[in-house]
Design goal:
Belongs to the cation diffusion facilitator (CDF) transporter (TC 2.A.4) family. This protein is of the alpha+beta class and 296 residues long. The chain is built from eight helices and four strands; from the N terminus they run αααααααββαββ. A four-stranded mixed β-sheet has the order 3-2-1-4, covered by helices on one side.
């Protein structure tokens, strides 16, 4: 794992604390239920950033006797935890929105509240782009999940700010808790998406079709001297991609020559795709299935 990835996770905790402080202050100034819902979600952001930091630290540990394939799935666990926290935040916001709807009131000092919340939203918008860019570049489910969560926070904060403008204009105080309820539903949907994607990683889901197609292409191009490759299986575990397949070679080929072909394929995959673990099972031509990857 690149050291920059870990530092980004550390910085994410700091950014989350600053945003939480700004949004909490905005709620205290205005008494708005919608701003309270925004602040509650930011508490989850800080907790999720801490979980992502812990997961990245664990996943960076080298393979050991008890974990011969490494600790990469720790990032998926972090993303699942974050999804659960997001769902809990959504139900908490719905509860506050319900009580606010029963006893509605116009917010105090709306301009000051909008300025504080707007500053927090701008900071979140910049930071979520950083997290998504670094997470995708390093194939880090933990950072990507954190970035998506913060992006949701940005969208909901913009909705809250828009509603803040409408509340004093319309003079309808029920609009404030109604906005909070809409925030909660959006957060709930995001939490479900995070958990669904993370569970796929824990269940050894295959990489996207374009990645699988690229693997097949590289095997086909660099397996000169072999007959075919079949039973190709791939899976993702955090930033790692695991590839395994059977390589059929002529029965008269020496072990050394077959080994050279395997080395050539492995070098091609490792050069084209970072963090790849490859297992190749060599078989004689009598095991050919005449399907799978055709050697060019």
């Amino acid at each position: 794992m690149k050291r920059s990835t870990l530092w980004v996770a550390v910085a994410s905790v700091g950014v989350g604390v600053v945003v939480l402080g700004l949004k909490t202050l905005a709620y205290l100034v205005t008494g708005s239920v919608a701003l309270l819902s925004d602040a509650l979600e930011s508490i989850i952001n800080v907790a999720a950033s801490l979980a992502a930091l812990a997961a990245l630290h664990i996943s960076a540990q080298p393979a050991d006797t008890n974990h011969p394939y490494g600790h990469h799935k720790a990032e998926y666990i972090s993303a699942v935890v974050e999804g659960v926290l997001v769902v809990l935040a959504a139900f908490t916001i719905l509860r506050e929105a319900y009580h606010g709807f029963l006893d509605p009131r116009l917010p105090d000092q709306p301009v000051k509240g909008m300025l504080l919340n707007g500053a927090a939203t701008a900071l979140n918008a910049v930071w979520c782009m950083v997290l998504l860019r670094v997470g995708r570049a390093n194939r880090s489910p933990a950072l990507i999940a954190d970035g998506k969560h913060i992006l949701t926070d940005v969208v909901t904060s913009l909705g809250v700010l828009a509603g803040f403008i409408l509340v004093p204009i319309t003079g309808w105080p029920q609009l404030d808790p109604l906005l909070a309820a809409l925030v909660a539903l959006n957060v709930l949907w995001t939490g479900w998406g995070l958990m669904r994607e993370s569970v796929g990683g824990l269940m050894d889901a295959a990489p996207p079709p374009d990645v699988v197609a690229r693997i097949r292409e590289l095997v086909s191009t660099h397996a000169e001297g072999a007959i075919e490759a079949h039973d190709l299986r791939t899976r993702h575990a955090g930033r790692m991609t695991f590839v395994e397949f059977h390589l059929v070679v002529p029965g008269s080929m020496s072990v050394a020559a077959a080994h050279d072909i395997c080395d050539r394929i492995e070098r091609a995959l490792e050069t084209d795709m970072d963090d790849t673990e490859i297992t190749i099972h060599v078989e004689p031509e009598g095991e050919a299935k005449h399907r799978g990857v055709v050697v060019l």
